[in-house]
Each structure stands twice: as C-alpha cells, then as structure tokens.
C-alpha cells in the first residue's frame, strides 16, 4: 500500500495468483489491509459497473462516502481530484487501474475513470448506502484547468449526458 499527494488516497497492490485457468485475487481483505495502516472501513454496499467499449468515461463525482475500487477485468485510467477544502484542493492523482491493484478514495475526493480496454468490470465497495438525497459534488472531467491527461480525448470519449453537463472546476472555488 502506498500514499499519494492527496491525503487519504491510497494505492493498493494486490497479489494475482495466476495459473493455466486464469487468476485469483483477494480483492479486499480487511485484516491484511488494516495491518498495513488501511483506515477503518465498514463495507455496507458492493457495486459493479460494466463498460463494453474503450473510451467510456465516468465522473468526476465526489460522493459522501469512502470508496474502495478494483477492476475484475480490463484496464482503466483513473483520475482522482481532491475537492475538500485545504492545501490540496484541486490536486489531481492518476492511476492505471488493472486487476492487480486497487484504490481507496476518501469521501470528498472526486473520482472518475476512462476505460482503456474493452469489457472493463469496475467494482467498488462503499461504507454508506446510496441515497437519492445524497449530496454529491460534480465537476467536468475534461476541464482544462484540471489538466487531466486523459488517454482518449473529449471528442472520442463515451459519456452520459449527465456527466457532460457537470459544472467546471472553477464553480467550486470559494
């Protein structure tokens, strides 16, 4: 496990056990992670997102819960933006996600990803239940002020209408 320039954002290396059949991994093992300094994290919900095409881009969304992200299949480029007040507000970290790693994203950090292979299976555990009344912070993934080096440009990215309509980063400046 390693820290990043965004406080609380952790990169976790996972062991893939490979053989002629494929691979196996412990995607999340509480005791082992805790022994390495992982914060308390009570999982209450498990979510899976399937993305068929290269270039699917989701986010940037900051939810009011912590998130533990791992891929079950494929590769994706993750971009995490610190949207919490403080010295690291606006700091961006990027990670190449694959089945052999994971991310812990603390609440208040905006997370987003873009698929770089077809058939990406993105899984995530959260420590609060989804609610339609939850307060989200949403910003535009391709805002030039953030400088995220997306592998696939905005013109070729596959996004939802909702994600395209997110406000610019500047709207969050206090």
Describe this structure in words.
- The chain has helices at 30-35, 161-164; strands spanning 2-3, 10-13, 17-19, 22-24, 45-51, 57-62, 67-73, 76-82, 92-97, 101-105, 109-115, 120-126, 137-138.
- By secondary structure, it is mainly β.
- The chain has a single domain, classed as Jelly Rolls, CATH 2.60.120.
- The strands form 3 sheets. Strands 1-2-10-7-12-5 form a 6-stranded antiparallel beta sheet, with no helix packed on it. A 5-stranded antiparallel beta sheet has the order 9-8-11-6-13, with no helix packed on it. It has a two-stranded antiparallel sheet with strand order 3-4.
Write the layout of secondary structure elements.
Layout: E1 2-3, E2 10-13, E3 17-19, E4 22-24, H1 30-35, E5 45-51, E6 57-62, E7 67-73, E8 76-82, E9 92-97, E10 101-105, E11 109-115, E12 120-126, E13 137-138, H2 161-164
Antiparallel strand pairs: 1-2, 2-10, 3-4, 5-12, 6-11, 6-13, 7-10, 7-12, 8-9, 8-11
- CATH superfamily annotation: Jelly Rolls
Give the beta-strand count: 13
Please give the CATH architecture.
Sandwich
Strand ordering within the main sheet = 1-2-10-7-12-5
Radius of gyration: 16 Å
The name of the CATH topology is: Jelly Rolls
The main β sheet shows up as: 6 strands, antiparallel
The total tally of domains equals 1
What is the CATH domain class? Mainly Beta
SSE pattern, N- to C-terminal: EEEEHEEEEEEEEEH
The averaged pLDDT comes out at 96
Shape: globular
| Low-pLDDT windows of residues | none
């Amino acid at each position: 496990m390693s820290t990043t320039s965004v406080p609380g954002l952790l990169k976790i290396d996972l062991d893939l056990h490979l053989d002629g059949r494929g691979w196996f991994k412990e995607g999340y093992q509480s005791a082992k992670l805790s022994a390495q300094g992982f914060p308390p994290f009570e999982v209450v919900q498990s979510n899976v997102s399937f993305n068929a095409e290269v270039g699917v881009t989701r986010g940037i969304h900051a939810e009011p819960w912590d998130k533990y992200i791992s891929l079950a299949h494929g590769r994706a480029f993750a971009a995490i933006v610190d949207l919490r007040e403080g010295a690291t507000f606006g700091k961006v970290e990027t990670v190449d996600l694959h089945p052999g790693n994971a991310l812990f994203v603390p609440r208040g950090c905006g997370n987003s990803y873009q698929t770089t292979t077809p058939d990406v299976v993105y899984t995530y555990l959260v420590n609060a239940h989804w609610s339609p009344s939850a307060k989200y912070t949403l910003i535009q993934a391709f805002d030039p002020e953030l400088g995220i080096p997306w592998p696939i440009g905005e013109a070729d990215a596959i996004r939802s209408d909702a994600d395209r309509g997110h406000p610019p980063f500047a709207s969050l400046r206090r």
